[in-house]
């Protein structure tokens, strides 16, 4: 597709400034199947200039105009949902049904939730004689990851459009093709020229320009904590707003009052979903020490029942991880767990025996894990679960909070006990008893999991500046 070799700038598909290209690899086969152009500082600056010009007029559009725009985007996203899902499956390995229903489908949900939030959002209100005005923050640089690509694009672009911001998107070069389709959607829906711009590339070539450029008013980044630190450092000299959603090492606490079998099975399933490639995956399973043996056996059976295979096979539950680099990292950490003395309950190093190629990881469970082990502290970003025991709820809370991260946590148990325990956890999100996902709930973390919040009303707040007009009225 020719558009894979162009960028979307100022309402048109334009040629890049250089001839640099990158192969897009199918992680199920380890073979390239497409190429993208790789952007440079020249391309990024061209897109930033377009967004800056467009901001003058788009920032003054009415709530009604922006609502109508979001509704048109939803209509086009729905029509192209399966196409977007299929390309996500091909480029990052998610099972096709999951890629369509969840990976692509969540983009629609974010736009719909933004529409709902926007309807009730107080862009202006009186506080005595002062008028409080929420105005668009300005030109936003967006840097998004490969693991939930449309999710993270949509939950940034939707509130930015809703509040009157303009933007430049740099999607991940690991899974870049869905962003091309997304740009086509916005073009068809009638987003004004220059409001949304998209430049492919890597962090040094494009990401650093977005983070450091004086004409970018805010950078919204989702990715690893290591990369988030680099973004913040690049942004610091221009004192721009930096919004970060970073890594996690989320605990899943099974209280004594929980149905142990159901809680462990669901914990394994949640940890392995998306091949473990979710920043909020519950990768540390905390169970009462007296029931450890029982919990380990349930987890072993659940892990060994997971069907790993070709993303295009309807029976597949776990596809490959997204890249060779990710596969190698996971393999190294599995070996590190064994080396440090954790008990390998299921899985282990290497591919599943029935698969000869592809970045497939064996669903892996470790028991006998202590919270100082590497597998309990580092974000593995693969289908690897660590089971830890606790002797009291005080100890469970201490283990759960003993991490540099603070994105998410999960609790299983009697409702009143789970609600009380939730207040003890230092995470931005706590999910109780397999509660369904809530697109209006704030998403973001404490500590090294980032700052700021996404989704719904919270996303709208992040993309606005607050102005007080004193003496506006009696």
TrEMBL record:
PROSITE patterns recorded for this chain?
ALDEHYDE_DEHYDR_CYS (PS00070)
Please write the reaction equations for the catalytic activity of this protein.
Answer: an aldehyde + NAD(+) + H2O = a carboxylate + NADH + 2 H(+)
List UniProt keywords, sorted A-Z.
Answer: Oxidoreductase
State whether keyword Oxidoreductase applies: yes
Broad enzyme group: oxidoreductase
Q: Recall the GO molecular function terms of this protein's record.
A: aldehyde dehydrogenase (NAD+) activity
According to the entry, every stretch annotated as the Aldehyde dehydrogenase domain falls at: 13-467
The family database entries (SUPFAM superfamilies) matched by this protein are listed as: ALDH-like
* Gene3D superfamilies associated with the record: Aldehyde Dehydrogenase, Chain A, domain 1 (3.40.605.10), Aldehyde Dehydrogenase, Chain A, domain 2 (3.40.309.10)
Its Enzyme Commission number? Answer: 1.2.1.3
Family statement? Belongs to the aldehyde dehydrogenase family.
Q: What is this protein called?
A: aldehyde dehydrogenase (NAD(+))
């Amino acid at each position: 597709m020719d558009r894979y070799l162009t960028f979307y700038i100022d309402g048109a598909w334009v040629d890049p400034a250089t001839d640099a290209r990158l192969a897009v690899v199918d992680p199920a086969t380890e073979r390239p199947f497409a190429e993208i152009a790789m952007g440079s500082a020249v391309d990024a600056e061209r897109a930033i200039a377009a967004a800056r010009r467009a901001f003058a007029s788009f920032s003054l559009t009415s709530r009604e105009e922006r609502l109508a725009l979001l509704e048109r985007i939803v209509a086009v996203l729905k029509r192209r949902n399966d196409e977007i899902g299929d390309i996500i499956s091909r480029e990052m390995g998610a099972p096709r049904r999951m890629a369509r229903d969840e990976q692509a489908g969540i983009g629609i949900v974010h736009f719909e939730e933004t529409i709902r939030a926007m309807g009730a959002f107080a862009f202006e209100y009186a506080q005595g004689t002062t008028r409080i005005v929420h105005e668009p923050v300005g030109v936003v640089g967006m840097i998004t990851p490969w693991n939930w690509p449309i999710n993270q694009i949509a939950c940034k672009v939707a509130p930015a459009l809703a509040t009157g911001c303009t933007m430049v998107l740099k999607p991940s070069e690991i899974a870049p093709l869905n962003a091309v389709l997304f740009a086509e959607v916005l073009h068809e829906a009638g987003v004004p020229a220059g409001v949304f711009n998209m430049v492919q590339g890597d962090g040094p070539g494009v990401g650093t320009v977005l983070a450091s450029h004086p004409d970018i008013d805010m950078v919204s980044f989702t990715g690893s904590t290591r990369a988030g630190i680099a973004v913040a450092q690049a942004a610091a000299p221009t004192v721009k707003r930096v919004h970060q959603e970073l890594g996690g090492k989320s605990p899943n606490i099974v209280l004594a009052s929980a149905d142990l079998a159901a809680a462990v099975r669901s914990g394994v399933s949640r940890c392995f979903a998306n091949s473990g490639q979710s920043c909020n995956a519950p990768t540390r399973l905390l169970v009462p020490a007296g029931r450890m043996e029982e919990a380990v056996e349930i987890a072993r059976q659940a892990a060994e029942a997971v069907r790993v295979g070709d993303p295009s096979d309807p029976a597949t539950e776990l596809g490959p991880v997204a890249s060779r680099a990710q596969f190698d990292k996971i393999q190294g950490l599995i070996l590190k767990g064994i080396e440090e003395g954790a008990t390998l309950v299921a899985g282990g190093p290497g591919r599943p025996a029935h698969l000869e190629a592809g970045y497939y990881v064996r669903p892996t469970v470790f028991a006998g894990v202590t919270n100082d082990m590497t597998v309990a502290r580092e974000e593995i970003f693969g289908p690897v679960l660590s089971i830890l025991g606790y002797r009291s709820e005080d100890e469970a809370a201490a283990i759960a909070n003993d991490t540099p991260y603070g994105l998410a946590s999960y609790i299983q148990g009697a409702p009143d006990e789970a609600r009380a325990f939730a207040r003890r956890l230092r995470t931005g999100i706590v999910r109780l008893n397999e509660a369904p996902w809530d697109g209006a709930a704030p998403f973001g973390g404490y500590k090294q999991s980032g700052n700021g919040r996404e989704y719904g009303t919270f996303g709208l707040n992040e993309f606005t500046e607050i102005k007080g007009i004193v003496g506006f009225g009696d």
